[in-house]
Amino acid sequence: MYAKVRRPGQKKHFVKVASELELLKDVYGAETLESLKINDEIWGVLMEMAWDERYIYLMEIMDFREKNREKNLENLAENRELISSQNLKLWSAGNMVYARHFHSLVDIYGPEFRQKIDNFHGRNLLKQGENLKHFIVDCRFLRDFSVKTQAFYTNQMQSLHDDNWTSSTPFELNFVNYQADQQLSSIAKKNLLFQYGPPSISNFKRHPFAPQITPRRVESVVPKDRLLYISPRATRFLPDTVPADLTGVVICLSQDASPATSSQTACIADRVQPYQIPFKRVIRSTSFRPERLQLWQLARIFRGYFAGNTIDVSIRMNDNKFNIFIDFFFRIFRIKAPFKRPLYPH
């Protein structure tokens, strides 16, 4: 603005106005002067006013800006939901909330915390009513595998239980066609803690909502025509959305490289149509290997699928960001704890 002042009289008047603004800054503070946002246009207006008019004008601008600031703060406060309210909504929905007056990470080592988790799981199961979905694991080939593979799959069964137990929309888990010999029974007693409990507890009682392990066939749980059978070798992809009459999914513990223990073989034996999860259609990464996904990760995909998302969206929601914190925590906790005590010994 000073560059536009040319005549000596204008320069003298400019210095006077600038001095008044400097006085305003000294009285009300530099932040107040900055909040006025005086540009060349306002300078021109101030230069044409008498000193008393300038004073009234500046006071009115200050008052107007202050009222606007207070109004914006009020609107922000109204629109911003309190964190405590958000936590209460999460807690009411059945989620674990690590906050004051809710749940504390310190409680994670105590039986009270585990009891709360048990109560939450039972409530989350019952509140679904007729909408409760089934996640069925076919174990027909488990007895034929090596010791290493049996340990690998039984650990997956426990991890599936752990992840499902803390979900706000859990599945009803069933392990069917389970025919255990002495070797498999020995491995299962070490790894399936929800079924046998930790060795440190002699009077272990199985939780009534723990997964069911049965030698019976799939249809003993849910009729075959109401289930989706999954096989990596299937020639059909899953429907984009879940058909209305379907209430569950079947995953076979198999080694699909061998026809004798392939999920496709199991589907042929049961005379059902298998479906393939369209990973390659959704995930473009060359490093992604569908066969590396574990049961608990597949359960998360189908949880979103049965919740109403398309299968592509359900996969994409979990692509490269499977929340492995719970599984990782369980593994670390079980390694550190004596006798592999689980986080939630039921």
UniProtKB/TrEMBL annotation:
Family annotation (InterPro entries): MT_TRM10-typ_sf
Listed name of the protein: Protein CBG18804
